[in-house]
Amino acid sequence: MTDRSALTRKILLGMLLGLALGSLVHSLSVDESSPVMVFGINGIIDLGGQIFIVSLKLLVVPLVFVSLACGASNLSGGTSLGRIGLKTISLYLLTTAIAISLALMASNIVNPGLGMALSSEAVFVGKDTPAFKQVLLDIFPSNPVKAMAEGNMLQVIVFSILVGVAISKSGHNGSRLRESLNDWNEVIMKLVLMLMSVAPIGVFCLMTSVFSNMGFSGILDLIQYFLTVVGALFLHFVFTYFILLRVLAHCSPTKFFKDFYPVMVYAFSTSSSSATLPITLETLEKRMGIKKEVASFTAPLGATINMDGTAIMQGVATVFIAQAYGVEIGFSGYLMVIMTATMASIGTAGVPGVGLITLALVLQQVGLPVEGIALIIGVDRLLDMLRTSINVGGDATVAAIVAKSEGKFHYP
Ligand code: ASP
User: Fold this and answer.
1) Distance, CA of 243 to CA of 252 (rounded, Å)
2) Considering only 102-111, 141-150, 282-291, 338-347, which range has the smallest mean pLDDT?
3) From CA 345, how far away is CA 356, in angstroms rounded?
4) Ligand 1 near 355 CB (within 6 A)
5) Would you list the DSSP string of 41-86?
6) Which atom of ligand 1 is nearest to the CA of 349?
């Protein structure tokens, strides 16, 4: 067994043990003020989980900068960058639109909210969406240090690409810098590996603390909604991703996800595409044979704007809330949901729970009561974990397709 597959098994074991221990503690209804909870679960175990997440986040900005500046400097010029950018963004939008359409279809078959007969006084108040000009302007950094300090990924991406392009145009000096960035890249990748070696413990801590504090009773009340989201996530995974990988990336989807699933386990236990990013990048580059030029662009961009799982939750939630309040959305309403949920998922940061906040945008656009979010909040923690895994799986799928089309995918 290789080191990596041994590690993968340990991570899976950490996840299962955490899940079991957390669920056990929860089912025993241990008193919040008991030493087991105070010092154990909410003390040392929670601390372990938090340290793990913080350390993952620590690597995001340096890794994205070094790897993207390096990657961009290796590309032949503006044309290939523009082409890769266009393909990536189009595929992200396309997969997200497919994801919501699937979610809307599934929820119209299951009708998860029928019969709840809630009434709402809420009236549709159009929310001022930020001016398009401002949204575009915010992509461009005025101060790279500030962008990095705030973890503003789009700005960091733009800055890194600019530096990369300048390096490629700077002759001898540029190539010296590229070599040194390459060295830095290897060092940071090593850091990611070091962190991965303690991941089984980190994942165990995260899972234990989440599941010991998570109520399952809410899930029973919302079982139809919960299962519709899970079903749509699953369908999107096995149909959309599998078909796209087979047809456009010419690889075996089963093998692809067998190699990639540890990253999805991280995403599941951290509920954050951003925190998972260092591991996504390391795996795409070192294990899946996707060249740095493509992986370093597609993965950070995906962790920032591509959220298929989130869009699925938002699609099902919208239908659920409409049905619960007895509001007819109609065909044009569905089109509106597809458009706004695609935009909302772009605006969803890759951190826990944000998808539920941007859901307000979608609800407002179709004139549904925003307080409907309260109906589903109880089951969102677990759904957040599941949809984050799909979000990350979507990023990898698109990275593979774009890399294949550029001749930069050499799957071992
Ligand atoms: N937790 C999700 C992510 O990081 C975002 C969300 O849907 O809340 O990908």
Assistant:
1) 10
2) 338-347
3) 10
4) yes
5) IIIIIHHHHHHHHHHHHHHHHHHHHHHHHHHHHHSSSHHHHHHHHH
6) 5
Encoding tokens for residue 158? Answer: 């733009």
pLDDT value at position 123?
Answer: 43
Comparing C-alpha atoms, which of 165, 138, 167, 163 is closest to residue 153?
138
**CB 309, CB 387: distance < 8 Å:** yes
Atom 6 of ligand 1, residue of closest alpha carbon: 355
Which residue is closest in CA terms to ligand 1's atom 1? Answer: 352
Residue 103 has φ and ψ, to the nearest 5°, of -65, -40
- How much of the chain is in helix, strand and coil states, percent to nearest 5? 80, 0, 20
Cα 350 to ligand 1 centroid, rounded to whole Å? 5
Question: What are the C-alpha distances in Å from 68 to residues 78, 139, 163, 286?
Answer: 14, 16, 9, 15
Ligand 1 lined by 273 (C-beta under 6 Å): yes
Q: Kindly give the number of the ligand 1 atom that is closest to the alpha carbon of 353.
A: 8
Ligand 1 atom at minimum distance from 388 CA: 9
Q: Contact 53/272 with Cβ under 8 angstroms?
A: yes
Q: 42 burial class (0-12, 13-18, 19+ CB within 10 angstroms)?
A: middle
What separation in Å is there between the alpha carbon of 175 and the centre of ligand 1? 38
Q: Is the CB of 272 under 6 A from ligand 1?
A: yes
List of domains in the chain: 2-80+87-405 (1.10.3860.10)
Q: Do residues 368 and 333 lie in contact, with contact meaning Cβ atoms separated by under 8 Å?
A: no
* Count of Cβ atoms closer than 10 Å to residue 254 Cβ: 11
Per the CB < 8 A criterion, the answer to whether 104 and 334 are in contact is yes
**Cα separations (Å) of 95 from 41, 221, 237?**
39, 31, 11
SS3 of 106-162: HHHHHCCCCCCCCCCCCCCCCCCCCCHHHHHHCCCCCCHHHHHHCCCHHHHHHHHHH
Ligand 1 pocket check for 342: Cβ under 6 Å: no
Coil, strand or helix at 279? helix
pLDDT digits (tens, 9 = 90+) for 356-392: 888 988 888 888 888 888 888 888 888 999 999 999 9
